[in-house]
Amino acid sequence: MPIPTSARPWLGRATPFSLEPTDDPVFTRRLRIPAAGEGDWITLTVLGDPSKAPLRPMLRLLRAGRPDEEFLLPGVTEGAAHWLGYLPAGLREIRLAAGPGLRLDRVGLRTRASVFMECLFKRPRRFPAALYTFLRRDERRFRDILRGSCAVTPLARYAAWAAARTGPPAKTPDPTAGPLRILIPAGGGEGAGLARTLASLRAQAHPGWQALVLHAAGGRHVPNDDPRVAQRPFAPDETLADLVEASDAILPLSPGDALRPEALARLGARLHARSDLDLVYADALDPDGRPLLKPDWSPDLALATAYVGRPALYSARLLLRAGGSAADAPALVGALAIATASARAVEHVPQVLCDLAAPASAPSAEEVGRVLAAIASPAIAEAREGGVLLRWPLPDPAPLVSVVIPSRDRIDLIARVCRGVLQETGYAALELVIVDNGSTDPAVLAHYEALRRDDRVRIVPHPEPFNFSAMVNAGVAAAAGEVVVLLNNDVAVLGAGWLEAMVRQACRPEVGAVGAKLLYGDGRLQHAGVVVGLGGRAGHSLRRRPAGSPGRLGQLCVAHEVSAVTAACLAVRRDRYQAVGGFDAEAFPVDFNDVDFCLRLGAAGWKTVWTPEAELAHLESVSRGPAVGAARRRFEAEAARFSERWRAIIRHDPFYHPALSVTTFGEDLE
Questions:
Q1: What is the pLDDT of residues 522-563, one digit of tens each?
Q2: Could you give the CA distance from residue 353 to residue 13 in angstroms, rounded to a whole number?
Q3: Is 110 in contact with 43 (CB distance < 8 Å)?
C-alpha cells in the first residue's frame, strides 16, 4: 500500500530500489538504491503481519577498509515499521535480514540538511552536539545523536506513532479456535461501560464467543438482546471449573474494556496453534491512551505486578487444573492470579488488542501470599509501592559466598570496595578473593599485606596481559564458596543487605545469574538489567534516570527476569558457573563476556534475575579508559563475535518489546 509522503515528510523522497539474493544465510537480500550516495540518509519502510514472530529486521553495511556495521530495525507491531539510517563513507553494499512475513515496501532518501533541521525542531538542545561532532567528522557520534533525536517517539505520543505505522489490513486468522467465553464481573452503575464492552464483542472477527456477565449482589442487568450474552448473579459455591463449562478458553474483561475487532481471532488462533499452551496475552492501552507494552512471559514480574492484565485468554485446561473459588469478583480475581502463576506454557502477542477502562492494579502482599500458598511457593511477599517484593528463603545454614574482585593498582578503588565487603556488609558467611593483575602501586601492595591478616581474604596473582574473563575465571577457580559474587573494584556498598538479597535469589533452583541495582556516583540509575539488542548489541535500559524511577509497568520496583546483567555485580552458584564453562576468555576477553555468560546460562535452562533490593554505587569503567585505536578494534572484533553467536536474541530480547527503541536507553518508541 503506498504511503502518502506529503503528510509524512520525514519518510523522505521515494526512490527506486531492488533486492537481490545473497549467499549469506542471515542477510539474505542485497539492497540496491541507485539514487543514493555517500552521506545520504535513507528511510526504510517494512510491512508485515504483527501477529507473526516478532524478530526485528536487520541491516548490514559492508564498508571498504572498515568493519561491517549491523543495525537493528524496529519490530513490525502495527503493520508497518520505519527506520532512519545514514549511508557512511566507503559503503560497498547493503544487506537485509527480514523475517517471517516481512517485506521491504519503500525506500526514501533524505538530505543531510533535512535531518539536521528535524533535530533542531525536535531536540534543539542536541543540535549543537550533532553539528559539533559532524564538523569534527566523528561519524558514529553525529549519526547516533541525529538518530536518537529524529527516529524515536515518546510513549506519550503513542496514538500518532501508531497511526503513522498502520500497514495494509492483515489477514484475520481463520476462526479455528473452539468456543471462547468472555467473563465480565460487574457491579452497579456500570451500564454504559458494559454496553461499550458488549459492542466491541459484537464487532469481533471471531464469531464463536459467548459472554457471561456476573453481577454482584444488588447489581442490575443491563438491556441486551444478543443470545450470546448471558447475565446472572455470582453463585456462592461457584468455582472456576463451573465457569469453564463447554468453552475452550476464558477471557476476563472489566466493564468498559473494548477489544479491537481482531482480538479474539488473534488470541484464539495462537492458543489453538499449540496444544500445550496455557495462556496467551496481548498489549493494551490504559485509560489515558498510554500503551502497556508488555514483555514476553516473565513469571516473577507477573506475580509481583500482575502485568499480564487484560486481554488474556486462559485455556480451559489451565483453569480446571488451577481450581479456586469464583463466588464473587475478588475471589475470581484471586483464582485467575493463581492460574496465571501456575501457567507452564505462555505466549505473548506484542500487539495492542484492547482499550482498558481501568488499569489492572498491582496485587497486595496478602493477595500474593494467598497465591504463593496455593502454588506451594516458599517465597514471602512484602507490599511495596508499584508492586510486591518477593523474598526467597535462605538455605539453612546460609551458604558461604566468595566475592571475587579483579583489580590492578588504584588504592582509592580497592580500599573502598574491600571496606564495603568486609566491614559494611551484613552477610557473615563470606570470603574475599582479589585477583590482582600485576599491581605495582606501593600503597596497594601495602593494603594487600594488611588484608592478608584477615582469614577471609585471599590475593590471587594474575600477572598476565589484561583479560577480564580470564581473571574472573581464575578467581572463581580459587573460590571456596557455594555462591560466587563477581564485583568490580569500582563498586561501593551502600547498604548492609545487598549481599543477602542477591544470595536469596541465586539459591533458587531455576535461577542462574542475579544482578543488582547500580547507581552512578551522582545517584542516577546505571544498571537495571541488560537489554540484548539495545545499541545494536547489548545495553543498559533507562540509564541516567532518577534512582527511584518505577520503570515501565513498575518493573524497577520488583525483582524480575531479564536477559542479562552486568558482571560489575553478579551472583551465581559456583556449580552453575562451572556447568556452562565460566566466562569465555577467548572470544570475549574484555567486553560482552557477562552478557554472553548470562545467555549461556539461559540456554542451559537457568534464568537471569535483576533485584532492586541489592543497591550499590558504580563508577562505571573508571579504572579503564575509553576504547580508542587498538582497543576500539578489539572491541569491534568482540562485538562481531557476540552478534554472530547471539543474533537471534539481539533481534528479539523476550523482555523488551519489539516496538521499543534500541537507539535510546529510555524506552521510547521507534
A1: 999 999 999 999 988 999 989 899 999 999 899 999 999 999
A2: 33
A3: yes
Give me the pLDDT at residue 66, please: 86
CB contact set of 375 (below 8 Å; sequence gap of 6+): 338, 341, 342
The CA-atom distances, in angstroms, between 194 and each of 129, 208, 310, 449 are 53, 20, 16, 74
Q: Is 217 exposed, middle or buried (0-12, 13-18, 19+ CB in 10 A)?
A: exposed
Rounded average pLDDT over 413-430: 97
Length of the chain: 670
Kindly provide the b/e burial profile for residues 364-387, where b requires at least 16 CB atoms within 10 angstroms of the residue's own CB.
ebebbbbbbebeebebebeebebb
Residue 626 predicted with pLDDT over 60: no
pLDDT attached to residue 385: 75
> What letter does residue 6 receive in the DSSP assignment?
G
For residues 615 and 494, is the Cβ–Cβ distance under 8 A?
yes
- Decide: 23 and 142 in contact? Cβ < 8 Å: no
* Residue range 180-391 in CATH 3.40.190.290: no
CB 667 within 8 A of CB 552: yes
The segment(s) of the chain belonging to CATH 3.90.550.10 are 180-391, 401-651
DSSP 294-305: --S--HHHHHHH
State pTM to two decimals.
0.94
pLDDT in tens, 181-215: 999 998 766 788 899 999 999 999 988 899 999 98
Supply the pLDDT for residue 421. 98
Number of C-beta neighbours around residue 539 at 10 A: 16
Burial 556-580 (b: 16+ CB within 10 A, else e): bbbbbbbbbbbbbbbbbbbebbeeb
Q: What is the CATH number of domain 401-651?
A: 3.90.550.10
Question: Is 550 in contact with 667 (CB distance < 8 Å)?
Answer: no
Which residue type is seen at 431?
E
Share the mean pLDDT of the chain.
Answer: 91
